[in-house]
Structures are given as structure tokens and as C-alpha cells.
Amino acid sequence: MTEEKKSWTSYFTKKVIVSLSVVATILTIVGGIWAFEAHYATNSRVDHVVKMGEEKVVDLELQIAGALQNQQHKSDVRYWQFMYDKLTTDINNLRRQMARYPNDQVLKQDYQDLINQRQEVKEKRDKAMDNIRIN
Q1: pLDDT at 6
Q2: CA 133, CA 74: separation in Å to the nearest integer?
Q3: Nearest-5° angle of CA 101, CA 96, CA 77?
Q4: pLDDT for 17
Q5: Does residue 50 form part of some domain?
Q6: What CA–CA distances, in Å, run from 55 to 41, 44, 50, 121?
Q7: Which residues, other chains included, contact 94 with Cβ-Cβ below 8 Å and sequence gap of 6+?
Q8: Which single residue of 28, 71, 80, 93 could bond 125 by disulfide (Cβ 3.0 to 4.6 Å)?
Q9: Is 21 in the same domain as 70?
Q10: 79 lies in the same domain as 103
Q11: Residue 79 CA: distances (Å) to CA of 73, 76, 85, 120, 128
Q12: Does the pLDDT value for residue 11 go beyond 80?
């Protein structure tokens, strides 16, 4: 009888072990498939987030480019205004010199050259100011 019990228990133990092994194998396969699908679902979500991030980066780059361009136009206006003011000061100094030496042709020629340069600078300044208004 002890052999029957031993054999019955060993038979039962073997069946339980095999059954648990089959259940564990099935759960492992199902879990693997589930994890595989979750991985790809997660990657698709990540791809979506990356695309959204890239779109935001592009928008920010466009905003930064616009701001930098606007800043450059303002800088151009300040530069041309500085040049205009400098030429005006030079013209006023030259007028004083011409008052002292009214017959000096070199001073008259320099005066005319400065007037022409100041007109060119004024046109460039006005063009730079128009660029600010457009943008």
C-alpha cells in the first residue's frame, strides 16, 4: 500500500507540476504578447509626443527668427540715425569753418559731399524704419 500511495502521490505531484508548468508557460506567452503590444503602443505615444515637440520647436524657432530679424532692423535704424547725427554735426562744424574762410573751395566741396552723404544715410535710415513697420 505504501507503494500505491507513493505512486499515487508521485503521479499526482507530477500532474500538478506539469499543470503548473503549462499554466506558467501560457501566462508567460500571454504576458510577453501583452508587453510587446504595450511597448509598441508606448512607442507610438512617444512618437506622437516627439512630433508635437518638434512642431513646438519649429514654432519657437520661427518666433526667435522673427524677433532677431526685428532686433536687427532696430539696430540698423539706430546705426543709420547715429550716422545721420554724426554727419549733421560734421556739417555744422564745416559751416563754422566756411564762415571763417568763405572763399575756400575745398571747404565748399567737402560741405557738398557731406550734404550728399547725409541724404544717402537719411534714405537708408528711412528704408530701415520702413522695414520695422512692415514686420
Answers
A1: 63
A2: 10
A3: 135
A4: 87
A5: no
A6: 21, 17, 9, 41
A7: 107, 110, 111, 114
A8: 80
A9: no
A10: yes
A11: 10, 5, 10, 13, 10
A12: no
Structural domain containing residue 8: 1-45
Name the pTM for this structure. Answer: 0.56
Grid cell digits, residue 46? 512617444
Dihedral of CA atoms 19, 22, 28, 29 in degrees, nearest 10, equals: -150
- Report yes or no: 98 and 111 within 8 Å, Cβ to Cβ: yes
- Position 1 scores a pLDDT of 44
Residue among 119, 114, 120, 121 at smallest CA distance from 83: 121
Report the C-alpha gap between 102 and 90 in whole angstroms.
17
3-state SS string for the chain: CHHHHHHHHHHHHHHHHHHHHHHHHHHHHHHHHHHHHHHHHHHHHHHHHHHHHHHHHHHHHHHHHHHHHHHHHHHHHHHHHHHHHHHHHHHHHHHHHHHHCCCCHHHHHHHHHHHHHHHHHHHHHHHHHHHHHHC
Instruction: Answer yes or no: do 7 and 35 share one domain.
Output: yes
pLDDT above 70: percentage of residues in the chain:
90
